[in-house]
Amino acid sequence: MSRLALALAAGLLAGCGQISYLAQAAQGHLALLQAARPIPDWLADPATPAPLRERLARAQAMRDFAVRELHLPDNDSYRRYADLGRSAAVWNVVAAPELSLELVRSCFPLVGCIGYRGYYSEVDAQAEGQRLAGEGYEISVYPVPAYSTLGYANWLGGDPLLNTFALGSEDELARLMFHELAHQVAYAPGDTAFNESFATAVERLGLAHWRAAQGQGQAITAPVQDARRLALRALLLRSREALGRLYASEVSDADKRMGKARIMATLHSDYAELKAQWGGWAGWDPYIARQNNATLALQGAYDDQVPAFEALFVREGRDFTRFYAEVQRLAEWPAAERQRRWPP
């Protein structure tokens, strides 16, 4: 996952109280666009390293597949590439109260209220995180390899491929590209869980189709890693559900704190058991070490409605065009009605 959409419009359309945020969002995204060059230029440039040339050619095949087979938008997004010279596109800040799984939200015109804020400077993101921590919130500041401008930046050349996600595993490149393109298909202002779960569903469905199209070309580790992901998601879901029940209960705050400590201890012990089953593989140790209300609530936004979207895809005959049309219809519902009726 990461995998979070940061709409440029959130910064560009902020009110006067968001001037500093507006400035860094606009300047950061414009700098990113200025660094991008059309992929044919990279492919034709003799100075382009062979591994990068091969990956960019592969990425364009993947982009064509996204249009042809997944019916994702056919526009200029991911037709250019930029090396930002850093490890993340942006750094996101999320926060939640000590005894709640409700993310602190920032509200902007057009995109509505979102449960995170993105910064192009890690220093600025850490400063915002510390400010929120000083107010008593549990926070997480984490790198984001890719984001979506929801199609608003297509007139500027669209969202480019970046070194922050294009050069990793092919599976991760496919996941992120399909996820971010899905945000251009349907977006419900102010409903982070709906938007991210839909994009995650498209990511998973798209990756399965991409893998199938590659036949025997898939890495043998993919099924193993998929199984690990499913186990981790199940563990985090159990923890979120237990905390949700605790926070909604009538017990005292002191009892909630003790219950929370027990639930978090169980999360860590259950993860240790998973690691033993995985032969000691420790790739998610840093992520588990950071778990708190903010990270758990954020993961829920990405995961909790995915089964409903996958079921909707099946109900629509596994037809991406019909599936998207139905999701667009849901996104247009008034927020209160959608939250009451979705997931069904």
What does this structure look like?
The protein has 344 residues and is mainly alpha-helical. The chain has one domain (8-219, 305-341). The protein is 58% helix and 9% strand. It contains 15 helices and eight strands. The chain has helices spanning 8-12, 19-35, 39-44, 50-68, 122-134, 163-166, 170-182, 192-214, 222-248, 253-277, 285-289, 293-303, 306-315, 320-332, 335-341, and strands at 37-38, 80-82, 90-96, 106-108, 112-114, 117-119, 138-144, 161-162. The strands form three sheets. The protein has a three-stranded mixed sheet. A hairpin with a 3-residue loop joins strand 4 and strand 5 (112-114). Helix 8 crosses helix 12 (293-303). It is globular. It starts with 7 loop residues before the first helix and ends with a helix.
- Kindly estimate the percentage of residues that lie in beta strands according to DSSP: 5-15%
Strand order of the largest sheet: 1-2-8
The total of beta strands comes to 8
Q: What is the overall silhouette? A: globular
User: So what's the oligomer here?
Assistant: single chain
State mean pLDDT (0 to 100 scale): 90
Sheet of most strands:
3 strands, mixed
In sequence order, what are the helices and strands, one letter per element?
HHEHHEEEEEHEEHHHHHHHHHH
Give the termini distance in whole angstroms: 25 Å
Low-confidence stretches: 1-17, 216-221
User: Helix tally?
Assistant: 15
Number of domains: 1
